[in-house]
Amino acid sequence: MQLYDTARRQVVPFTPGEVVTMYTCGITPYDSAHLGHAAVYVTYDVAAAAAAGPRPPDLVRAHITDVDDDILAQGA
Q: Among candidates 45, 41, 51, 47, which has minimal Cα distance to 15?
């Protein structure tokens, strides 16, 4: 698998070690749910499957992020 390394600004090979940890933020829902929200989780699941080395990756997912005044105003 190859991943984009933002620090190096290039695509680099990824070889999983003995322990792989992954984190992703959840969606930021400003309006109705749409297919783009699912893309986050599908991409994350595909990457986790590809990164599975000797043991499954440790996964952390936040469900919904960035609750702010815009979202609160729409809910009122």
A: 51
